[in-house]
Amino acid sequence: MIALPFYLHFLILLFCIIPLSSYADSLAQPLPKSGFCPSGYLSSGDYCVPRHDAPPAIEKQGFCPSGYISSGNYCLARDQAPTTILKTGRFCPSGWLSSGNYCIKRD
Question: What range defines the domain where residue 82 resides?
């Protein structure tokens, strides 16, 4: 095994952690409970709490947006699904595209 200077260990660790931060932003979050919880989520009071391997979910308003599948009153993200939020009002925020009842974040 090759001995590396301390600062190289730090840089390697830093560059391994930074990419994880953007992945962590897309991890599933608790949702307000509306009927039964979606697949991969557990009921906890008035919330649906994701299991460790649950995909991100959003409340379903009409049809699920592209990249999402229906699960009860929710839409579950499939692999590589874009970040999506419910649209409030007529327009999406800057940097987002309108898609039915949703706003999809531009890449």
Answer: 27-105
Q: Which of 83, 75, 77, 104 is nearest to 92 (CA)?
A: 104
Looking at the domain assignment, is residue 9 inside a domain? no
Q: pTM for the full model?
A: 0.70
77 touches 105 (CB < 8 A): no
14-58 per-position pLDDT tens digit: 343 333 333 334 689 999 999 999 999 999 999 999 999 999 999
Give the number of domains in the chain. 1
Please answer whether residues 78 and 66 qualify as being in contact, where contact means their C-beta atoms are separated by less than 8 angstroms: no
Is residue 21 in a domain?
no
Tell me whether residue 77 is in a domain: yes
